[in-house]
Amino acid sequence: MTEKKETVPPEYDVNAKWDACLDLTVRRFVYSSLGGAFAGLLLFRSPVTRWSSIALGAGIGIGSAYTDCSRSFDAPSSPSANLAAPKSTTTETS
User: How many domains does the chain have?
Assistant: First the structure.
């Protein structure tokens, strides 16, 4: 009894899109928060304004990730949607 596995084209693989979107969102959130923290340390003396710059950076990161992810889900066959899941490559040695 052999099972026939169905392969899903990459543009319709929703699980891969969710993985890529989650990865992109976390990376942009962290990097933009760190950028906001660095800018807050350089520009502001008050702790409130420093935290505000961190929050602004985090919001910008989440917003840009949301924009890219929504493009990825809305237009599956679009060549401009360059959001893709990381692929593992294995090489066979003989």
Answer: 1
